[in-house]
Write a structure and sequence with these properties.
The protein has 3 helices and 14 strands. The chain has helices at 16-22, 73-84, 263-269, and strands spanning 5-6, 34-35, 43-50, 55-65, 68-71, 88-94, 104-112, 127-131, 164-169, 192-201, 205-209, 227-232, 235-247, 254-259. The longest helix has 12 residues, at 73-84.
């Protein structure tokens, strides 16, 4: 296996040029939240290096086994596209919460879910990066049991008002407005978290509140693939209910996450980890 390495990178994040080049959808970033510091050390950012030396932040994700990093397939398809064009030099993950001049990267191989589709009832929007080395001192998060959230069908936000989730990621912050088009400030490589309440559920998705007016936060551009930790008994657990995949355009109303307790998600993840 390759040894753990570090690499310098230019101060460039997911700019419009990079997104177009890699085919990354603008999805996911923390809104109305707080600096994470070391609350969620198993949450990292997915990075990619191109053959011309440029390095880009792609998405967020979570360590779910010693050498398995969970993210979204719409993130790894961007890496597939770059690889097909002969542009991809390496894929790596950093778990640092502050933007150092020299990030410490764990290199690995990304695996896109072959069942992923942008459309359909179950888009299969989950992927992994198989790391060459196990990150030291980081305890992996847990996955939900099969059908863990099926019992919520038919419930409403009013009946499960205390059901919360914690979204974590490295993306842009809430939009700012001031006479022109809205601007989403970059988190600058820092990890943030926000709390959301349950809104609705369907076969493959959980819909969460992200409205600041209701006391909730959420996700926006840059957090795709990041975790949404389930709360139980009034406390946050280390169970990843789902990965961030989409939301409203302005990132101020809804956070939609791909459920990890479904047969489709478990069929894919079961190839890489022992399922609960």
């Amino acid at each position: 296996m390759r040894t753990q390495r570090t690499r310098w990178f230019a101060p460039l994040w997911a700019t419009a040029v990079a997104l177009a080049l890699l085919g990354v959808a603008r999805v996911g970033a923390i809104t109305y939240g707080w600096l994470d510091e070391q609350r969620h050390p198993n949450v990292g950012r997915l990075m990619a290096g191109l053959t011309d030396g440029r390095v880009f932040f792609i998405c967020s994700g979570t360590l779910i086994d010693d050498q398995v990093f969970l993210t979204a397939s719409h993130c790894t398809t961007a890496l597939d596209n770059a690889d097909a064009q002969g542009l991809l030099a390496w894929v790596g993950v950093s778990f640092q919460t502050e933007p150092p001049h020299v990030p410490f990267l764990y290199y690995g191989t990304h695996v896109t879910n072959p069942g992923y589709t942008r459309l359909g009832i179950d888009a299969g929007d989950v992927a992994v990066v198989l790391l060459d080395d196990a990150p030291e001192g980081i305890v992996p998060a847990r996955l939900p049991t099969a059908g863990m959230f099926d019992a919520w069908y038919g419930t409403t936000r009013r009946t499960v008002k205390d059901l919360k989730f914690t979204a974590v990621g490295y993306g842009a912050l809430e939009p700012s407005r001031g006479g022109g088009p809205p601007i989403w400030p970059s988190a600058g490589g820092r990890r943030y978290y926000a709390l959301s309440e349950f809104a609705a559920i369907d076969r493959a998705w959980l819909h969460l509140q992200a409205n600041q007016a209701t006391g909730d936060g959420g996700t926006c551009y840059g957090d795709s693939g990041g975790p949404n930790f389930l709360w139980m008994g009034g406390k946050e657990t280390d169970i990843v209910a789902g990965v961030t995949v989409k939301g409203d355009v302005m990132c101020v109303a809804t956070n939609v996450i791909y459920r990890l307790d479904t047969p489709g998600a478990r069929a894919f993840l079961g190839q890489f980890v022992t399922l609960p």
